What we know:
single chain; alpha+beta; 4 domains; 5-stranded antiparallel β-sheet; 3-stranded antiparallel β-sheet; extended; disordered C terminus
Amino acid sequence: MNWLDNLIGAVMPERAVRRWQARQALGEIRAYEGAKRGRRTAGWVTSGSSANAENQMALPTLRNRSRDLVRNNPWCKKALESWTGNVVGSGIRCNLASHKKLGKAYKRWANSRKCDADGHLNLYGLQALAARTMWESGEVLVRVRWRRPQDKLAIPLQFQVLEPDYLDSDKTQDLDNGGYILSGIQFSVIGQIEGYWLFDRHPGEIGRLSRSLQSKFIPAEEIIHCFRKTRPGQVRGVPELAPVIMRARDLDDYEDAELTRKKVEACFSVFITSGDSGNSSIGAVEREDKPAGRMVEKIAPGLIKRLGMGESVSFGQPTPSGGYPDYTRDQRRALAAGGMVTYEMLTGDYSQVNYSSSRAGLLEFRRNAEGWQWLTFIPGLCEPMVELFLKAAALKGLGELEDDFELDFTTPRWDWVDPVKDMIGELLEVASGAKSLSELARRRGVDPQTMWQELAKDYAELAKLGIPINLNNLIAIGAETDPPDPGDPADSKQTKPRKRGVSHSRRKEHA
């Protein structure tokens, strides 16, 4: 205790006790190395702001930079394509086959472009577009467009995928009824979303500056807002590239600088010097004897400078780029981590992995992708779309589902690294009772009832034609002819990855 503490203790004992308690608490906090202050953390600026406070000002810049990287950086574009192709692929499908009439209507509607308000994509194309927008911009808005009878649509429902720029992010205020508007989203007094304030056109559209930007209120029932929520209370999504935007930019600059250095070195390939002159030819100008005595300045690849008698020739030696491959590889690993893909998926470089490590990386990626599918995309986008279709179908008299009907979604099937061994493993699980045949069918991306009906039809047709088939013999033949993988000596029966995807599906669980 110093003299000030002694003085306060003599005059105000209670105040002195509080000061001592505060000092003890500060000491406990600084017992954590991460909470200590010093030269190592002098430039570490942190804030205790909420997710919405952090996002509101940063989101426009993050979105624009993320889009720029996808447009101009091949690695970021590849990460986006790999992510979308794996988590959405040819579409996340809902099975309504148990209701024959509704199932046919849904299949016909989903496979046509009549579900798209812009008339370009079918339902699964809209899913892929929404997933791309979420990855690139952090979130996506889907406008629900109900159509009139004169539009002559079998299902009077269309969807319009919008970028988050349509949302009036600057609109934040309290309302007289106790509600509030936060980043263009209007909430009730109890925090329920009532609607969205949207512009009628994209704010960055060509020719838009000549018009006033006025947002309009759209009820929540007419908007599907999907984003990955990572913090409690978060109402807007953040681009997936946000943690690695600066790394991607720095890597671009580094590669450009390295390329420029190589170009400059290539310009100085041959030097001719004279034994009685100490002058260097670097930076000199090439003189052509002309009547006017004009000096010609020129540097180009392959330039040879002649200086006169007693000349000697030396060749430029390009300096090696020490550490260039290792540095760029590490930076691309960081880009892959930020883009939620593996390094091999990002670059196509499998030189650093064998069969086992490649498979382990794919399993980790697939767990993350499944979490995104079943925790974000399906409940946030796919379910609302199907529920709206069922509502529109009921209005057209196509029937209704039971109240306790559970929507069943099938995700894209995964590619098997070793098809024969993976299939044998699946069959062993079924034989041991650890997995049902229905679950096996769903993991193959098909509805069990549809699969049984198709098998019964095929077997009946084969029997009618007198063609025998024995699945057990086919499995045994496949196991015997499975070639070894020379890249992994620990396993004598590895097979090379198939080029065409063999994927899985998963049935949604409801409480």
